[in-house]
Amino acid sequence: MVGGGQLARMTHQAAIPLGARFRVLAASPSESAAQVVGDVVLGSEDDLADLRRFAQGCDVVTFDHEQVPTALLEALEADGVAVRPSPQALVHAQDKGVMRARLAEIGVPCPRNRIVADPADVAAFAAEVGGWPVVLKTTRGGYDGKGVWIVRGEQEAAVPFAAGVPVLAEEKVDFTRELAACVVRSPHGQAVAYPVVESIQVDGVCREVIAPAPNLAEELAVRAQRIALSIAGELGVTGHLAVELFETVDGRILVNELAMRPHNSGHWSIDGAITSQFENHLRAVLDLPLGDPRARAPWTVMVNVLGGDYPDMYRPYLHVMARDPGVKVHMYGKDVKPGRKVGHVTVCGDDLDEVRERARHAADYLRGDITE
Ligand code: ADP
Q1: From CA 102, how far away is CA 270, in angstroms rounded?
Q2: Region for 247 from its dihedrals, namely left if φ exceeds 0, alpha if ψ lies in -120 to 50, beta otherwise
Q3: 365, 319 in Cβ contact below 8 A?
Q4: What is the pLDDT along the chain (372 residues), one digit of tens a residue?
Q5: 111 Cβ closer than 6 Å to some ligand 1 atom
Q6: How many whole angstroms from 10 Cα to the centroid of ligand 1?
Q7: Ligand 1 atom 22: residue of nearest CA
């Protein structure tokens, strides 16, 4: 797996019972996955020699993040390496402009959007979609809300252009909540769809995921799953695809963005589904039959642990684990920094309010927000 972050760490965990040998390409031995994986190649995903050194002897190469240059992946493919998802599919998760153009071609509902040239063009776009505010996004390089601006006038519209990459303008969607539809597709074309989840974002960062999304009409859930399956098929995705969605006030489902790797909106599946997203991602890229994606319990709530005050987790573990033996704690071995995702907790059960309270309490405590 290219990248040594927490997604590689959790994929490694899923590789163990499959008996699949697992190697990561990491930038440093202190990265989340590099701390626990036995076979670590140190190097850069921007360096073809490093990528080749890493890929030598691998049956298949996959990713914990999407930022690997397309040309380098095409060079690996030309060497005969199986790259999954392929660079031709992956580009739709790397470049929001390419993604919007392709989704329009295949008839997937998206916010109105177009590439804009400069602040005056943003003002023209605002007029086309009924006025300010509009959302501006750098087409490449953004994550966790970095690279996204809500702009209320032409004078505010200059900042995104400073990065020197094309800028995408979108209508500001009046959404009631954010959903995610996660699917997994194998090279054989087998696909499975996870229950559609609600994802609660704070300042562009995922805070909490509820599986399944509460009070989501069956018809909308099926529509969201169909959208995700058709994107996976049309784009030739292999592995896990997360489709981030907006549910609008008037009952529409619009696609926000795509991730072609295990995704934060699927972490609940480690403890809450029969087959986790990580195991199914591995099964897919290895072209094995896929596992059952259904939930084990009526409700699963996953809450991210963001930053916090505890470089030493021992004391908070004593509290959290003693208070609630049903909480599953996943820490990533990352240095604690304010706002950074350093772990998550998961609780499953029959009563949503209770499950949610327990998961929130554990995450708040691990974060240091509460001390009792
Ligand atoms: P990133 O790639 O950084 O995750 P996203 O494209 O997912 O960025 O946008 C981050 C957040 O900004 C979204 O979760 C959503 O809350 C908000 N957002 C993005 N696009 C729109 C839009 N067109 N209308 C309203 N809100 C949006």
Answers
A1: 32
A2: beta
A3: yes
A4: 999 999 999 999 999 999 999 999 999 999 999 999 999 999 999 999 999 999 999 999 999 999 999 999 999 999 999 999 999 999 999 999 999 999 999 999 999 999 999 999 999 999 999 999 999 999 998 777 789 999 999 999 999 999 889 999 999 999 999 999 999 999 999 999 999 999 999 988 999 999 999 999 999 999 999 999 999 999 999 999 999 999 999 999 999 999 999 999 999 999 999 999 999 999 999 999 999 999 999 999 999 999 876 777 888 999 999 999 999 999 999 988 888 899 999 999 999 999 999 999 999 999 888 876
A5: yes
A6: 25
A7: 172
**Residue found under tokens 């033996």:** 325
| Domains of the chain by start residue, with CATH | 6-83 (3.40.50.20), 112-171 (3.30.1490.20), 175-367 (3.30.470.20)
From the alpha carbon of 147, which atom of ligand 1 is closest?
Answer: 3
Tell how far the Cα of 132 is from the centroid of ligand 1, in angstroms.
16
Evaluate if pTM is beyond 0.85.
yes
Residue 49 alpha carbon to ligand 1 centre in Å = 35
Question: Which among 148, 195, 224 is positioned nearest to 300, based on CA atoms?
Answer: 195
Pairing relationship of beta strands 23-26 and 39-42 according to DSSP bridges: parallel
